[in-house]
């Protein structure tokens, strides 16, 4: 069939599609016929995506396609342009399988909705309806309900009385400013994309990462749970003190001091547990019942606040009659007497004593013996609520802090008392129940400004979350802040100081102090605050389990996964049970004033990290950071974060430390045990910025010797099934990483990247998996090149980044290098040695790597022997030290052997080396081995132990230029050659012979095969040899001397270190002439023969260890 190109043009409503089809007779190729027809259809399917909304009839283009391989078989296809592209290009078909169509993507985004984590019934009710809540019902009112709480009704008047108007106003202003700044930061985060249910936990975890998110999320959960305990305790306090005091199981009548306090706390514990059980049951049955009561609870809160403001207005017109009875300047408990007077006139005109007299005197008669303070002071009756126009504000401006048990007194009233007079009848006076101070007031008050996350928690139910959350939250905080600040001033302007400092209203007939101000009746506040606190407790018990469920479902903390399960209707049963148990801990504390600072810590920590997340995202200028809310700044976020941290330590420094320890422990647990999550968080962006900054700093110069640590490039090979052939290399890497340096594990693959990129990815995955198994922290890299030699070279050259590059290469000794089919392997190895030398990299070559210990093994005893023949910058000293930091080698002792010639002072060498190791802070035994000069020839041995010039890097093994010249001169001066047996041979034989030109090759072959030293005599004969023959002769002479050296060193090493767990040796450099590479491998083989574990070390040309601090 002839190849042809048929161009065709489709014109559909002004849309031009130009296409050209190459028909080559392939059965998968299609060609388009020139005739096109239109058909009207009422199909509601476009590209396989069903639209929820019905669309009007539309025109579809149908293209007839003919399959060339199947004859003239026509096929009808919908003429979506993407389908045309897919038939023209197989590549397009593959891309369409993975890339969603624009229409379907826009449709899914437009119809996106996420319900509040709640019951299944709520999901079913909203399944077919779009979110309908606006700013008022969805954000503003829920925030109002959550912010106004038990502290406003039970403790605000007491806070004003103790801290004074000025001090309390400062506390309120600080706390409200903190929440406002947090709301600004939260608004920026919430409007930077869709925020599903989960509120602050979701925002923090997605902004600061799973570790911070999990830690702060759990802290926020604990705060919400303890808030539930605080609300329950507040409700019980209202019940037992103001509503039904006689309902107490442990009666308070007749008790005083510690006994009365214990009875009250026990009552709180019993009733609190009962109320908690009831609330948990309601939540367990169904959250829909809680939602039905939400409006009632909200109405109670609003009506109570309005009643207070109405009462304030009324005090300016007609102050209520709430008298307070003072004895001297001491406030009396009004329930214990009926008349505020010592005596009163009876109906017959005589003076009779009152109940107050009987409280302080031993009899009702006028001549009775009475309490001295009662006798010396008068009883006065003052108005508890003088009114907003009375000018009492000036008296309440400053604070009055008490110790526990102090009398609540009016400092302006006259009082006569002796300095040393003991206080009697203390149960008749109003006393301070706790020691008060400024920071305590901060901790007690702060829970009253929490609840600002209520709007963000309902983001899935909002019609326009990105608009409603900022407006509603900021408006709610503004409203509540104005209410709180005005309350501080109005309470100080309307209520007498002793009444403000009377926490439980004992001086005003046991009435709730704020209730005495309310209009039309104190019961409006009492009943309203009781129901509002019950509602707030139910909300806490509803929200906290769902927060725990969200954390558990994210899988951040493995031990919490069980709490992600829910019952059939979607209720998180296990999370609810955990919440109830933790809430019971707060109830057992039984004191509202002690529970409030606990939850303050957790909320402040949560708000601090919300501010940190916003500041971090703003400063990093992440491309995805595009919040619709524009009225934010990183400085405001940092100010909010600083205020949160300050308030934490103001509230309670020890609670703050405990909260931080809890958060830090959770952070580390998630970091080491939790599931890895990639959420594009700001901490990762911060890490990238910090890494960039650090890399730029590293470029400023090479690291100092004191900062040197092995940055390893580990070269491994893979088999055909993508398994690492030398897994023990990574075990050795882990054992060497006490220096905590960089680790890059690389492998070389043969081929082209386009064809082998998937293989490279699988290789990297296999490397990563093995690194996790061996607990090696670092990076893995697979490089593909046309041959393995080039791929390895690329790894050496390009691994690392900037100043963070490897300075040492770890590669295994080629095991079967003598086999014919492994010839290229050992050649690649020798080239690798040359490249590391050229790149000034250290080289570590473990021999018999399979015999090296795994990370699970332990050596209970043994030695690590170092044979220090050539100074390599200290690598031989440093590596055993690093190995001994690991538990595998920890119990092994280090021995250092150095070689001395006959003319060296061995005793002095040992002494100098011992001193040197002492200054290096390395514990090792030292031994000096004496060898003949002929045993360690100049080719392989250089005198290195010169302590005065220790820092000088000596050249490795190769002869110097002067030594080569001396060698040639020796050859030219001699006319006979003598073969001398090695010293190990017991008898010496001398052979003299005439050399004939025709026997030259045989002579040199014999020289190579025999480990003898060759000496030549006969100047006329030598001059008759060509230059090439002379060089060949010298090379063979060097080979013989090298083998002789290897044999002698190997004998000595075997004698001293045959039982050592590891032997470290200097690794000589390869010859410059590549024709001697095989002899080089033979030399190393002979040198290490018979040793179980050997680590050949070649320095990188710089000092890596120093005696200086």
Automatic annotation (TrEMBL):
InterPro entries found in the cross-reference section: AA-permease/SLC12A_dom, KCL_cotranspt, SLC12_C, SLC12A_fam
Keyword Ion transport: yes
Domain Amino acid permease/ SLC12A intervals: 139-313, 415-713
TM region positions: 147-174, 180-204, 216-244, 270-287, 294-313, 429-453, 474-500, 520-538, 574-592, 598-619, 631-656
Catalytic activity line of the entry: K(+)(in) + chloride(in) = K(+)(out) + chloride(out)
GO terms for cellular component: plasma membrane; synapse
Bilayer disposition of the protein: Multi-pass membrane protein
Entry's localization field: Cell membrane
Source organism, top-level taxon: Eukaryota
Chief place where the protein resides: membrane
GO MF terms, alphabetically ordered: potassium:chloride symporter activity
Family membership noted in the UniProt record: Belongs to the SLC12A transporter family. K/Cl co-transporter subfamily.
Protein name: Solute carrier family 12 member 5b
Protein source organism: Gadus morhua (Atlantic cod)
Source species taxonomy: Eukaryota, Metazoa, Chordata, Craniata, Vertebrata
């Amino acid at each position: 069939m002839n190849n042809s190109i048929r161009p065709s043009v489709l014109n559909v409503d002004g849309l031009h599609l130009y296409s050209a089809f190459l028909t080559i007779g392939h059965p998968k190729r299609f060609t388009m016929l020139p005739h096109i027809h239109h058909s009207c259809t009422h199909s509601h399917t476009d590209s396989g995506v069903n639209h929820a909304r019905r669309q009007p009839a539309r025109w579809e283009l149908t293209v007839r396609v003919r399959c060339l391989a199947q004859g003239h078989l026509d096929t009808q296809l919908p003429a979506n342009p993407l389908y045309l592209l897919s038939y023209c290009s197989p590549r397009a078909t593959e891309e369409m399988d993975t890339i969603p169509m624009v229409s379907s993507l826009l449709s899914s985004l437009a119809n996106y909705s996420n319900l509040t984590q709640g019951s299944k019934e709520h999901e079913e009710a909203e399944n077919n309806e779009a979110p309908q809540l606006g700013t008022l019902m969805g954000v503003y009112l829920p925030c109002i309900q959550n912010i106004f709480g038990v502290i406003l009704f039970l403790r605000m008047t007491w806070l004003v009385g103790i801290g004074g108007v000025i001090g309390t106003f400062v506390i309120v202003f600080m706390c409200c400013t903190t929440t406002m700044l947090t709301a600004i930061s939260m608004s920026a985060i919430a409007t930077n994309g869709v925020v599903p249910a989960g509120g602050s936990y979701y925002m923090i975890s997605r902004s600061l990462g799973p570790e911070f998110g999990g830690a702060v999320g759990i802290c926020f959960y604990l705060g919400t749970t303890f808030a539930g305990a605080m609300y329950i305790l507040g409700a019980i306090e209202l019940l037992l003190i103001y509503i039904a005091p006689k309902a107490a199981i442990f009666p308070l009548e007749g008790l005083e001091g510690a006994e009365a306090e214990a009875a009250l706390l026990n009552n709180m514990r019993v009733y609190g547990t009962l109320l908690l059980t009831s609330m948990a049951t309601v939540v367990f049955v169904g959250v829909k019942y809680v939602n039905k009561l939400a409006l009632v609870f909200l109405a109670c809160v609003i009506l109570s606040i309005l009643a207070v403001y109405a009462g304030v207005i009324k005090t300016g017109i007609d102050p209520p009659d709430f008298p307070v009875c003072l004895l001297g300047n001491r406030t009396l408990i009004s329930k214990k007497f009926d008349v505020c007077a010592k005596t009163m006139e009876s109906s017959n005109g005589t003076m009779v004593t009152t109940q107050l007299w009987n409280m302080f005197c031993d009899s009702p008669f006028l001549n009775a013996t009475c309490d001295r303070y009662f006798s010396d002071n008068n009883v006065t009756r003052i108005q508890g609520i003088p009114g907003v126009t009375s000018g009492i504000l000036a008296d309440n401006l400053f604070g009055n802090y008490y110790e526990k048990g102090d009398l609540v007194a009016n400092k302006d009233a006259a009082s006569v008392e002796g300095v040393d007079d003991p206080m009697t009848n203390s149960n008749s006076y109003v006393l301070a129940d706790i020691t008060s101070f400024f920071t305590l007031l901060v901790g007690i008050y702060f829970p009253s400004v929490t609840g600002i996350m209520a709007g963000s928690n309902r983001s899935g139910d909002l019609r326009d979350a990105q608009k409603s959350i900022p407006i509603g939250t900021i408006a709610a905080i503004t409203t509540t802040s104005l209410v709180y600040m005005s309350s501080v001033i109005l309470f100080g302007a309307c209520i007498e100081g002793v009444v403000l400092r009377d926490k439980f209203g004992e001086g005003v007939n046991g009435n709730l102090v704020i209730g005495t101000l309310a209009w039309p009746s104190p019961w409006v506040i009492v009943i309203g605050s009781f129901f509002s606190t019950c509602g707030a407790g139910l909300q806490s018990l509803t929200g906290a389990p769902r927060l725990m469920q969200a954390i558990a479902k994210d899988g951040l903390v493995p031990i919490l996964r069980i709490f992600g399960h829910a019952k059939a209707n979607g209720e998180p049963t296990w999370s609810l049970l955990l919440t109830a148990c933790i809430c019971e801990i707060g109830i057992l504390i039984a004191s509202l004033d002690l529970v409030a600072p606990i939850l303050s810590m957790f909320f402040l920590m949560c708000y601090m990290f919300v501010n940190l997340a916003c500041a971090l995202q703003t400063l990093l200028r992440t491309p995805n950071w595009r919040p619709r809310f524009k009225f934010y700044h990183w400085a405001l976020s940092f100010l909010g974060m600083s205020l949160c941290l300050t308030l934490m330590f103001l509230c309670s420094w020890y609670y703050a430390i405990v909260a931080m320890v809890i958060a830090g422990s959770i952070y580390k647990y998630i970091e080491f045990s939790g599931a890895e999550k990639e959420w594009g968080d700001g901490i990762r962006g911060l890490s990238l910025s910090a890494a960039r900054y650090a890399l730029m700093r590293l470029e400023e110069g090479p690291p100092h010797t004191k900062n040197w640590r092995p940055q390893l490039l580990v070269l491994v090979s893979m088999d055909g099934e993508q398994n690492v052939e030398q897994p023990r290399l990574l075990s050795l890497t882990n054992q060497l990483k006490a220096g905590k340096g960089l680790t890059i594990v690389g492998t070389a693959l043969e081929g082209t990247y386009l064809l082998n990129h998937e293989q490279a990815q699988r290789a990297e995955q296999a490397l990563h998996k093995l690194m996790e198994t061996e607990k090696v922290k670092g990076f893995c890299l697979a490089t593909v090149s046309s041959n393995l030699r080039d791929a390895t070279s690329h790894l050496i050259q390009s691994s690392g980044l900037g100043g963070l590059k490897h300075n040492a290469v770890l590669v295994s000794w080629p095991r079967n290098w003598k086999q014919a089919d492994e010839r290229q392997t050992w050649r690649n190895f020798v080239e690798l040695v040359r490249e590391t030398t050229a790149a000034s990299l250290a080289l570590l070559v473990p021999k018999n790597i399979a015999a090296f210990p795994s990370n699970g093994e332990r050596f209970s005893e043994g030695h690590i022997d170092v044979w220090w023949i050539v100074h390599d910058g200290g690598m031989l000293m440093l590596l055993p030290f690093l190995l001994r930091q690991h538990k595998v080698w920890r119990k092994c002792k280090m021995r250092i052997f150095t070689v001395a010639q006959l003319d060296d002072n061995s005793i002095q060498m040992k002494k100098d080396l011992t001193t040197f190791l002492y200054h290096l802070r390395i514990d090792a035994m030292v031994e000096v081995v004496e060898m003949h000069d002929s045993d360690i020839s100049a080719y392989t041995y250089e005198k290195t132990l010169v302590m005065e010039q220790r820092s000088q890097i000596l050249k490795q093994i190769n002869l110097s230029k002067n030594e080569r010249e001396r060698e040639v001169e020796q050859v030219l001066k001699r006319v006979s050659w003598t073969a001398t047996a090695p010293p190990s041979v017991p008898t010496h034989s001398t052979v003299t012979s005439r050399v004939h030109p025709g026997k030259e090759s045989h002579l040199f072959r014999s020289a190579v095969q025999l480990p003898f030293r060759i000496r030549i005599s006969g100047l006329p004969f030598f001059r008759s040899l060509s230059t090439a023959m002379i060089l060949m002769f010298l090379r063979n002479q060097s080979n013989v001397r090298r083998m002789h050296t290897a044999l002698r060193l190997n004998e000595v090493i075997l004698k001293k270190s045959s039982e050592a767990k590891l032997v470290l040796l200097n690794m000589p450099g390869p010859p410059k002439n590549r024709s001697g590479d095989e002899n080089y491998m033979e030399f190393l083989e002979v040198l290490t023969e018979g040793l179980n574990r050997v680590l050949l070390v070649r320095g990188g040309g710089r000092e890596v260890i120093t005696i200086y601090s």
